[in-house]
Design brief:
Residues about 1-15 and about 230 have low confidence and may be disordered. This protein has helices at about 5-10, 45-55, 95-105, 120-125, 205-215, 265-275, 290-295, 305-320, 330-335, 380-390; strands spanning about 15-20, 30-40, 60-65, 70-80, 80-90, 105-115, 130-140, 145-150, 160-165, 195-200, 220-225, 235-245, 250-260, 275-285, 335-340, 345-350, 360-370. It is of the alpha+beta class.
Length: about 400
C-alpha cells in the first residue's frame, strides 16, 4: 500500500464535507471582518483587567459615567486586530442586563461585523424576516460618524452591522482612550492576531434552522460540516456546520449535540448557558509555540491532552507527506493539537472555561495551508473536555 493510501485509511474516521460552491453572489453589501465582540458581564472593569493580565490585551477605550454614559460602563480592549468590549450595568433596575446575567452568566451578547454598504445588508436582512433590535442609526464625535444596525441571531445573541468608513477615532464615539496597566506591560507579550472564527452552540435540532438563517438573511454560504458519525467518543457526539460570508473572511461554526451514552459538552453548555449562545472564540496566531508559552506564563489554563495522542500522531505523520515544521516534542510539552490533510496542517489548543459556569472558552489556532477546523482532533478534544465534565459531575 502506498503512502497516500495509508493516509486515506488513517484519516477515514475524520471525514468532513467541504462545500466548493458558494451559490449566488450577494445582491450588494459586503462583510469585511469581525469588528468586535461584546460581552455582558457582572463587572466590566474586572473582566477587562482579567483578559489584559491573562491574555495580553491592552486597554483601548472606556465609556462610562465620566464620558456621559449613565446606564452602563463599557471597557474596550485590543490585541492586534482583536477587540473585546465588556459591559456591565450601573443601576440595579436595568432589567435587560440583569435578566441576561441571571440566565446566562458572563457571556457574549453581540458579535459585531465591519461591513460595506450597510443599507443594503440591513435592508435584505429586514425584508427576509430578521428580528430587528435597533433600526439604522448613527453616532458621531469630533473624529467622524459611525453607522450601526442591530438584529437578533441565535438565542439572545445579537449581530451589529458597523460602517466606520467615515470615522477615525480610537474605537467608537463616546469612548475615551485609557492607558494600560504598568504591571501588565512587564508580562510576556502575546502574539494573537485576529479572530479566526466564533462558534455558536444550539439545542438539539436547531443547527439546520440557524444555518439556514445565515444563508437566507445574511447571504452566507456553507463552508464545512461534519456530523455525529464522524465526531464522537464513546460517550458523546456533535454535529457542526460552518457558515461564512462570500469573501470567507467571517466564519461562524454552528454546533448542536447528538445522541450519546452520556451528556455531550454541547448539551452541558446549553443547559448551563440557558439556551443557544457563543461557546468559544478562536484567535489566530502565526507562532502558536510562543503564544502558548507566554499565555501559560501569564497563568492561562488549558485542557490536558494524553501522551497517547502524540504517540499515535507520530505514527500517522510518518505515513503522511506532511512536513510539520514545529518541534513535536515542544508541541507535546505545550499540549498543542495537530490536524492535517493532503495540503497542510493546523495547530490548535483550547483553554479551560474562562468563568465559573462551564460555558465560554478560548481557542488559539495557527493555520499552515489548512482551512479546516480540527476534525481530526475532535476526539482528543472531546475526551479532554469529558475529563473536566466528570470532575464537575456533568458527564
Amino acid at each position: 500500500m502506498n503512502r497516500i493510501s495509508h493516509l486515506r485509511k488513517l484519516r477515514a474516521y475524520e471525514k468532513h464535507t467541504t462545500y466548493s460552491k458558494k451559490g449566488l453572489k450577494p445582491n450588494g453589501g459586503q462583510f469585511l471582518n469581525f469588528d468586535h465582540v461584546k460581552f455582558w458581564v457582572g463587572n466590566a472593569k474586572q473582566a477587562a483587567s482579567f483578559y489584559c493580565a491573562r491574555m495580553g490585551f491592552e486597554p483601548l477605550g472606556y465609556n462610562g459615567l465620566e464620558t456621559g454614559s449613565r446606564c452602563k460602563a463599557a471597557h474596550a480592549i485590543k490585541l492586534n486586530k482583536i477587540i473585546f468590549v465588556f459591559e456591565s450595568a450601573y443601576e440595579p433596575d436595568n432589567e435587560e442586563m440583569a435578566n441576561h446575567l441571571s440566565r446566562h452568566g458572563d457571556g457574549v451578547r453581540d458579535i459585531a461585523f465591519n461591513v460595506k454598504d450597510i443599507d443594503t445588508i440591513f435592508k435584505i436582512a429586514k425584508c427576509r424576516g430578521a428580528k430587528i433590535i435597533r433600526e439604522l442609526w448613527e453616532e458621531k464625535d469630533k473624529y467622524g460618524v459611525v453607522r450601526f444596525a442591530t438584529l437578533q441571531t441565535y438565542g439572545d445573541t445579537l449581530h451589529t452591522f458597523i460602517d466606520r468608513t467615515k470615522y477615525n477615532g480610537i474605537f467608537l464615539p463616546g469612548f475615551r482612550k485609557i492607558e494600560g496597566d504598568v504591571i501588565a506591560k512587564l508580562l510576556p507579550p502575546i502574539n494573537l492576531n485576529f479572530i479566526d472564527h466564533i462558534v455558536g452552540n444550539q439545542p438539539d435540532q436547531q443547527m439546520e434552522p440557524i444555518a439556514k438563517w445565515y444563508e437566507d438573511l445574511l447571504q452566507f454560504h456553507r463552508f464545512w460540516s461534519v456530523d455525529d458519525s464522524q465526531l464522537h467518543t464513546e460517550f458523546s457526539a456533535l454535529r457542526s456546520i460552518v457558515m461564512t460570508n462570500w469573501e470567507e473572511t467571517v466564519k461562524m461554526p454552528i454546533n448542536e449535540p447528538a445522541f450519546g451514552k452520556k451528556k455531550s459538552q454541547i448539551q452541558e453548555y446549553v443547559e448551563y448557558y440557558g439556551g443557544a449562545g457563543v461557546q468559544h472564540i478562536a484567535l489566530n496566531t502565526d507562532d502558536i509555540i510562543t503564544a502558548i508559552s507566554n499565555l501559560r506564563l501569564r497563568g492561562v489554563e488549558f485542557l490536558s491532552v494524553p501522551d497517547s495522542y502524540y504517540k499515535i500522531l507520530r505514527k500517522r505523520l510518518q505515513l503522511s507527506n506532511i512536513n510539520v515544521i514545529e518541534d513535536l516534542d515542544i508541541l507535546q510539552k505545550l499540549q498543542i493539537l495537530i490536524d492535517y490533510d493532503e495540503n497542510g496542517y493546523l495547530l490548535q489548543i483550547f483553554t479551560k472555561n474562562m468563568q465559573d459556569r462551564p460555558t465560554f472558552f478560548i481557542e488559539v489556532i495557527q493555520r499552515c495551508n489548512h482551512n479546516g477546523f480540527g476534525a481530526g482532533n475532535f476526539q482528543a478534544l472531546f475526551e479532554a473536555i469529558e475529563i473536566e465534565q466528570a470532575k464537575r459531575g456533568n458527564l
